Protein backbone atom coordinates (compact mmCIF):
# COMPACT_ATOMS: atom_id res chain seq x y z
CA UNK A 1 0.00 0.00 0.00
CA UNK A 2 2.81 2.38 0.81
CA UNK A 3 4.29 1.74 -2.62
CA UNK A 4 1.00 2.70 -4.27
CA UNK A 5 0.79 5.90 -2.28
CA UNK A 6 4.40 6.82 -2.93
CA UNK A 7 4.04 6.17 -6.64
CA UNK A 8 1.15 8.66 -6.90
CA UNK A 9 3.14 11.34 -5.07
CA UNK A 10 6.23 10.56 -7.14
CA UNK A 11 4.21 10.87 -10.36
CA UNK A 12 3.05 14.37 -9.36
CA UNK A 13 6.60 15.40 -8.52
CA UNK A 14 7.93 14.12 -11.83
CA UNK A 15 5.11 15.66 -13.86
CA UNK A 16 5.98 19.19 -12.74
CA UNK A 17 9.75 18.88 -12.39
CA UNK A 18 10.52 20.94 -15.53
CA UNK A 19 7.38 23.08 -15.66
CA UNK A 20 7.83 26.86 -15.84
CA UNK A 21 6.85 28.64 -12.64
CA UNK A 22 3.88 30.49 -14.12
CA UNK A 23 2.37 27.21 -15.28
CA UNK A 24 3.13 25.30 -12.06
CA UNK A 25 -0.26 25.59 -10.30
CA UNK A 26 -2.16 24.54 -13.41
CA UNK A 27 0.28 21.66 -14.03
CA UNK A 28 -0.15 20.51 -10.44
CA UNK A 29 -3.95 20.47 -10.83
CA UNK A 30 -3.65 18.44 -13.99
CA UNK A 31 -1.22 15.90 -12.55
CA UNK A 32 -3.20 15.45 -9.33
CA UNK A 33 -6.30 14.72 -11.39
CA UNK A 34 -4.38 12.12 -13.36
CA UNK A 35 -2.97 10.16 -10.42
CA UNK A 36 -6.05 10.13 -8.18
CA UNK A 37 -9.51 8.70 -9.05
CA UNK A 38 -11.31 12.06 -9.11
CA UNK A 39 -13.17 14.21 -11.61
CA UNK A 40 -11.75 17.61 -10.71
CA UNK A 41 -9.14 19.41 -8.62
CA UNK A 42 -8.60 22.85 -7.12
CA UNK A 43 -5.74 24.27 -5.08
CA UNK A 44 -5.83 27.35 -2.85
CA UNK A 45 -3.62 29.12 -0.33
CA UNK A 46 -4.71 30.67 2.99
CA UNK A 47 -8.00 28.90 2.35
CA UNK A 48 -9.70 29.63 5.67
CA UNK A 49 -8.73 33.31 5.85
CA UNK A 50 -9.93 36.56 4.21
CA UNK A 51 -6.63 36.53 2.26
CA UNK A 52 -7.54 33.32 0.41
CA UNK A 53 -5.74 32.88 -2.92
CA UNK A 54 -6.94 30.60 -5.70
CA UNK A 55 -4.00 28.74 -7.20
CA UNK A 56 -5.82 26.78 -9.87
CA UNK A 57 -8.99 24.92 -10.74
CA UNK A 58 -9.08 22.09 -13.24
CA UNK A 59 -12.46 23.04 -14.73
CA UNK A 60 -15.53 25.22 -14.25
CA UNK A 61 -17.04 22.86 -11.68
CA UNK A 62 -13.91 22.89 -9.51
CA UNK A 63 -13.80 26.69 -9.82
CA UNK A 64 -17.44 27.06 -8.78
CA UNK A 65 -16.86 24.82 -5.74
CA UNK A 66 -14.07 27.17 -4.71
CA UNK A 67 -16.24 30.24 -5.32
CA UNK A 68 -19.08 28.83 -3.24
CA UNK A 69 -16.81 28.08 -0.29
CA UNK A 70 -15.15 31.48 -0.38
CA UNK A 71 -18.54 33.17 -0.61
CA UNK A 72 -20.27 31.30 2.24
CA UNK A 73 -17.06 30.86 4.32
CA UNK A 74 -17.64 27.15 4.88
CA UNK A 75 -17.11 23.80 3.18
CA UNK A 76 -14.62 20.92 3.02
CA UNK A 77 -11.67 23.11 1.99
CA UNK A 78 -12.25 25.64 4.73
CA UNK A 79 -12.56 22.92 7.37
CA UNK A 80 -9.50 21.02 6.10
CA UNK A 81 -7.42 24.19 6.21
CA UNK A 82 -8.64 25.31 9.62
CA UNK A 83 -8.35 21.89 11.28
CA UNK A 84 -5.29 20.63 9.40
CA UNK A 85 -6.94 17.29 8.59
CA UNK A 86 -8.48 15.65 5.49
CA UNK A 87 -12.23 16.20 5.19
CA UNK A 88 -14.85 14.42 3.06
CA UNK A 89 -18.37 15.43 2.15
CA UNK A 90 -20.21 12.48 0.58
CA UNK A 91 -23.58 12.02 -1.11
CA UNK A 92 -24.00 15.76 -1.52
CA UNK A 93 -27.05 15.37 -3.73
CA UNK A 94 -29.15 13.81 -0.96
CA UNK A 95 -27.51 14.09 2.45
CA UNK A 96 -27.38 16.96 4.89
CA UNK A 97 -23.79 18.14 5.41
CA UNK A 98 -21.97 19.89 8.27
CA UNK A 99 -21.92 22.93 5.93
CA UNK A 100 -25.57 23.90 5.32
CA UNK A 101 -24.98 26.87 3.02
CA UNK A 102 -22.29 25.05 1.03
CA UNK A 103 -24.40 21.89 0.80
CA UNK A 104 -27.49 23.76 -0.38
CA UNK A 105 -25.54 25.71 -3.02
CA UNK A 106 -23.83 22.59 -4.39
CA UNK A 107 -27.09 20.62 -4.54
CA UNK A 108 -28.77 23.46 -6.42
CA UNK A 109 -25.98 24.58 -8.74
CA UNK A 110 -23.76 21.53 -9.19
CA UNK A 111 -25.92 18.39 -9.27
CA UNK A 112 -23.10 16.57 -11.07
CA UNK A 113 -20.99 16.68 -7.89
CA UNK A 114 -21.50 13.63 -5.69
CA UNK A 115 -18.65 14.04 -3.21
CA UNK A 116 -15.96 16.55 -2.29
CA UNK A 117 -12.82 15.82 -0.30
CA UNK A 118 -10.16 18.25 0.83
CA UNK A 119 -6.62 17.86 2.12
CA UNK A 120 -4.64 20.51 3.98
CA UNK A 121 -1.40 21.65 2.37
CA UNK A 122 0.96 21.61 5.35
CA UNK A 123 4.64 22.27 6.01
CA UNK A 124 6.52 22.43 9.31
CA UNK A 125 3.27 22.12 11.25
CA UNK A 126 1.65 25.06 9.43
CA UNK A 127 -1.25 24.88 7.00
CA UNK A 128 -0.64 26.84 3.79
CA UNK A 129 -3.91 26.05 2.06
CA UNK A 130 -5.95 23.16 0.73
CA UNK A 131 -6.21 20.68 -2.12
CA UNK A 132 -9.81 20.03 -3.11
CA UNK A 133 -11.01 17.03 -5.12
CA UNK A 134 -14.50 16.23 -6.34
CA UNK A 135 -16.12 13.15 -7.88
CA UNK A 136 -19.35 12.52 -9.70
CA UNK A 137 -19.69 9.37 -7.61
CA UNK A 138 -21.55 9.91 -4.34
CA UNK A 139 -19.01 8.11 -2.15
CA UNK A 140 -15.87 9.79 -3.44
CA UNK A 141 -12.40 8.23 -3.20
CA UNK A 142 -12.07 5.05 -1.16
CA UNK A 143 -9.82 4.60 1.88
CA UNK A 144 -6.64 3.72 -0.02
CA UNK A 145 -7.17 6.65 -2.38
CA UNK A 146 -7.69 9.01 0.54
CA UNK A 147 -4.42 7.83 2.05
CA UNK A 148 -2.76 8.36 -1.30
CA UNK A 149 -4.25 11.83 -1.36
CA UNK A 150 -2.42 12.75 1.83
CA UNK A 151 0.93 11.97 0.19
CA UNK A 152 -0.07 13.70 -3.03
CA UNK A 153 -0.88 16.83 -1.01
CA UNK A 154 2.61 16.62 0.48
CA UNK A 155 4.04 16.40 -3.05
CA UNK A 156 2.08 19.51 -4.05
CA UNK A 157 3.58 21.45 -1.14
CA UNK A 158 7.10 20.27 -2.01
CA UNK A 159 6.58 21.45 -5.59
CA UNK A 160 5.20 24.86 -4.58
CA UNK A 161 7.68 25.85 -1.88
CA UNK A 162 10.77 26.34 -4.09
CA UNK A 163 8.71 28.50 -6.47
CA UNK A 164 6.96 30.63 -3.85
CA UNK A 165 8.99 33.79 -4.44
CA UNK A 166 8.70 33.50 -8.22
CA UNK A 167 4.92 33.04 -8.05
CA UNK A 168 4.50 36.61 -6.79
CA UNK A 169 5.94 39.88 -8.03
CA UNK A 170 7.65 42.48 -5.83
CA UNK A 171 4.26 43.85 -4.76
CA UNK A 172 2.87 40.45 -3.77
CA UNK A 173 0.65 40.12 -6.83
CA UNK A 174 0.24 36.63 -8.34
CA UNK A 175 2.12 35.77 -11.51
CA UNK A 176 0.68 32.37 -12.39
CA UNK A 177 -1.72 31.41 -15.16
CA UNK A 178 -4.45 31.82 -16.29
CA UNK A 179 -3.96 35.45 -15.30
CA UNK A 180 -7.59 36.55 -15.77
CA UNK A 181 -8.91 33.84 -13.46
CA UNK A 182 -6.22 34.55 -10.87
CA UNK A 183 -7.07 38.27 -10.85
CA UNK A 184 -10.80 37.67 -10.64
CA UNK A 185 -10.47 35.24 -7.76
CA UNK A 186 -7.73 36.83 -5.76
CA UNK A 187 -6.12 40.21 -6.41
CA UNK A 188 -9.26 41.94 -7.69
CA UNK A 189 -11.29 40.62 -4.78
CA UNK A 190 -8.83 42.03 -2.28
CA UNK A 191 -8.80 45.39 -4.06
CA UNK A 192 -12.59 45.45 -3.80
CA UNK A 193 -12.42 44.53 -0.10
CA UNK A 194 -10.18 47.55 0.41
CA UNK A 195 -12.62 49.81 -1.42
CA UNK A 196 -15.56 48.59 0.67
CA UNK A 197 -13.58 48.87 3.91
CA UNK A 198 -12.62 52.48 3.10
CA UNK A 199 -16.13 53.42 1.97
CA UNK A 200 -17.85 52.14 5.10
CA UNK A 201 -15.01 52.67 7.56
CA UNK A 202 -14.94 49.01 8.52
CA UNK A 203 -12.31 46.32 8.95
CA UNK A 204 -11.20 44.09 6.10
CA UNK A 205 -13.07 41.19 7.67
CA UNK A 206 -16.30 43.20 7.89
CA UNK A 207 -15.90 44.42 4.30
CA UNK A 208 -15.47 40.86 3.03
CA UNK A 209 -18.50 39.76 5.07
CA UNK A 210 -20.54 42.56 3.43
CA UNK A 211 -19.43 41.39 -0.03
CA UNK A 212 -20.22 37.78 0.83
CA UNK A 213 -23.69 38.74 2.01
CA UNK A 214 -24.31 40.66 -1.22
CA UNK A 215 -23.21 37.68 -3.31
CA UNK A 216 -25.39 35.31 -1.29
CA UNK A 217 -28.39 37.67 -1.43
CA UNK A 218 -28.21 38.23 -5.19
CA UNK A 219 -27.03 34.78 -6.28
CA UNK A 220 -23.94 36.30 -7.90
CA UNK A 221 -20.43 34.99 -7.47
CA UNK A 222 -17.97 36.88 -5.32
CA UNK A 223 -15.99 37.57 -8.51
CA UNK A 224 -19.07 39.24 -10.03
CA UNK A 225 -19.64 41.34 -6.91
CA UNK A 226 -15.97 42.30 -7.05
CA UNK A 227 -16.24 43.35 -10.70
CA UNK A 228 -19.26 45.53 -9.91
CA UNK A 229 -17.44 47.27 -7.06
CA UNK A 230 -14.38 47.95 -9.20
CA UNK A 231 -16.42 48.91 -12.26
CA UNK A 232 -14.90 46.16 -14.41
CA UNK A 233 -16.49 43.48 -16.59
CA UNK A 234 -16.25 40.10 -14.81
CA UNK A 235 -13.67 37.61 -16.08
CA UNK A 236 -15.03 34.88 -18.30
UniProtKB/TrEMBL annotation:
Highest taxon of source: Bacteria
SMART domains noted in UniProt: ANTAR
One function term, GO molecular function aspect: RNA binding
Cross-referenced SUPFAM superfamilies: GAF domain-like
Boundaries of every ANTAR domain copy: 177-230
InterPro entries xrefs: ANTAR, GAF-like_dom_sf
Protein name per the record: GAF and ANTAR domain-containing protein
Source species: Streptomyces apricus
Amino acid sequence: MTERHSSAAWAVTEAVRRVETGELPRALCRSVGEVLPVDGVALSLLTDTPARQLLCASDDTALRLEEIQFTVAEGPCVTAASEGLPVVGRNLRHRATPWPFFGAAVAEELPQVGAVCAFPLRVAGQTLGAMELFTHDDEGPDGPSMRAGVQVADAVVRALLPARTELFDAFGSPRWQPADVVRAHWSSTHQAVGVVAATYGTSVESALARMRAEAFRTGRTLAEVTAAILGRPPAT
